[in-house]
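Shipment paperwork, digital attachment
Item: protein structure file
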Amino acid sequence: MTCIRARVGDRLTYIGGLPTAELFALPYLELGVTTYSSAIFNFLPEFALEFYAAVRGREYDLVAKHLNDFVLPYCDLRNRREGYAVSIIKAGLKVIGRPAGPVRTPLVDLGEDELAVLAELVTGLPPTPRPDRFAARPRWSSAAPARGATHISPRREPKAMATPAPADRWPGRRSSAPAYWFC
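Attachment content:
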């Protein structure tokens, strides 16, 4: 990653997932990687957003507190068995009252004792205020995508390089984030 970043500079856009990417967020930020995919966000979105804000703000004490109080014990639990990276997310959803069903074979769900440990971790977190900017956003959109507005053609594999889509590609698009399509 260091070699790639040194060669291409700020032209690097890294979009990837790691098992519990929070562990790598600060070192990657120093390399210029400003985003990551958080699995924890699936069941603790406010915690994940607060953690991300602390990383981006380089609030090292708060990041260390979150790592020590939740992320590292969470990872210890996740690492107890092969395949628990998926199982622990479904268990987290169960803990917060939004069960998503069992994992598919050959994976196995967390055991009752492990589920209790996870529940203790989750309930031990201090409440995180939900930012107003997320409270007003609709959770689901019933609007169908515009005809031909697919990002990736189903007939061919995407190449490794994504290019910004023309601004008029999706008229009426509400997001200010850049849209990308694969060549």
